[in-house]
Amino acid sequence: MQNSKILSMLGLATKAGKTASGEETVVAEMQKRRAEIVFVSEEASLNTRNKLKNKGDFYGIPVVICFSKEELGKATGKETRTVVAVLDKGFAGAIDKLIKTDHDHAEV
After folding, report:
1. Domain count of the chain?
2. Domain that residue 23 falls in
């Protein structure tokens, strides 16, 4: 399963300063067209999921609903995170490739 590899890539992107987290921060990055891919926790509210999916559709940014808040938090060095955006094309491309090789685990 690729989940651990995706989370590891998310962690590397965070250490490189290429992620943003938190709903409002991520929405702002999407509007500035800096977000390359957005992860939303499976535990996020339906309102949050829909809001981010709609923004993703509008701006052409993939939004992936997967992982728990704890998994996203641990990958980014925080306690919990509901929403995380990757801001770098290289990291986003590598993550996208991992998602496509194991697409059963996420709702894209």
Report:
1. 1
2. 3-105
